[in-house]
Amino acid sequence: MARSPELQPVLDRAAEGGRISPEEALELYRHAPLHALGSAADAVRRRRYAGTEHIATYIIERNINYTNACVTACKFCAFYAPPKSEDVWVRDLSDILRRCEETVRLGGTQIMFQGGHHPDFGVEYYERHFSAIKEAYPQLVIHSLGASEVDHMARISGVGPEEAIRRLKEAGLDSFAGAGAELLPERPRTAIAPLKESGERWLEIMEIAHRSGVESTTTMLMGTGETNAERIEHLRMIRDVQDRTGGFRAFIPYTYQPQNNKLRGRTQATVFEYLRMIAVARLFLDNVAHIQGSWLTTGKEIGQLSLHYGADDLGSVMLEENVVSSAGARHRSNRLELLHLIRAAGRVPAQRSTTYEHLVVHEDPALDPADDKVVSHLSSTAIEGGSAHPELKLLDAS
Ligand code: SF4
User: Fold this and answer.
1) Is the Cβ–Cβ distance between 309 and 56 less than 8 Å?
2) 41, 64, 126, 252: which is deepest, by most CB within 10 A?
């Protein structure tokens, strides 16, 4: 039973698929007993995925960081370098294509092209790179960028976001990854990313993208000093847009990492806050299909637990990741371990596509890939054991 007698009917209504208000979501987030909250969220997940509710998905992908130069200087970011700094680097196209080739060879299906707001990179830069990637590797899905990058590149090129999105799509962009949402409400966003576009602008550009046929995922950065009410307001802003467009495929909360950034470790979300967010997101975002649990920033056990608090997806084996790793995320995994984690959490693992189709359902552990070379942070420069640019640690297939 919920602690407050008024909360139980709200939990029951949410568990049965009824819509809850932002005020009710905040009450649940603050006061509902953790297990009751998780149980209600799991009931919603099971109903939504009736018939496949025994499955939890993962994807094999690679972040490709094309530059760390950035004019936006977010206070939580440990990845960027000011454009005139001697620490700035830009990967050339041949290096990027080499990383794509390795991704395909290791069974990856998706790349996330991710970088800073370079002062010279307009729409043309992305057109050139996306079309080159698609020409060489048409099977790779380009699930990349987001409203922040669009806002920046459109300004550099002197065009509107509609034109920028149309040209990105024509060049090969399949969907937006939706990073840069951070926290959408004005106060916490201005506090941690004063030079970034507003949350309203971020959503406005995402809405344009959805109406242009480019769907996306969306994210939330927890633990940089925002209030509980601001976390729920973030969800409300997403739900309102989703009611109009239906273009958000998934919601992915993750936690602030405290190293090497200007926030200097002030405030972090606890694992309980994270699990409560996963559950409340499943209950409140009744119009978003997928809720992703993150083992990368919160750890493997918490990732497993998230599957019992409403998450249906456990993220990815990310062959390369440098952004949150630069800020201190040190969790690594590989495909075999991810399969084991999902099974140990009581689910059947399935490799998915970007659009959440099941590519391989790993029903029988005896048939798991025996010689698994699919390892997270294979070429990360930001985590011990990953190889450094420019020499990728190409794996020996034997
Ligand atoms: S989060 Fe992105 S926009 Fe902000 S400083 Fe880092 S690279 Fe730049």
Assistant:
1) no
2) 41
**CA 41 – ligand 1 centroid, Å:** 32
- Ligand 1 contacts (CB < 6 A) are 70, 72-74, 77, 79-80, 116-117, 148
Q: Confidence class of residue 323 from pLDDT cuts 50, 70 and 90?
A: low
Which of 210-224, 284-298, 360-374 is the least confident region?
360-374
DSSP states of 288-333: --EEB--HHHH-HHHHHHHTTTT--EEEEEES---HHHHTT-----
Confidence of residue 353 (pLDDT cuts 50, 70, 90): very high
Pick out the residues of the known binding site: 70, 74, 76-77, 182, 294, 316
- Architecture of the structural domain at 51-367: Alpha-Beta Barrel (3.20)
Q: Return the residue whose CA atom lies nearest to atom 4 of ligand 1.
A: 74
Predicted TM-score of the model (pTM): 0.93
User: What's the DSSP call for residue 176?
Assistant: B
CA atoms within 13 A on the CB side of 374: 25
3-state secondary structure 6-54: CHHHHHHHHHCCCCCCHHHHHHHHHHCCHHHHHHHHHHHHHHHCCCCCC
Pairing status of strand 290-291 against strand 248-255:
parallel
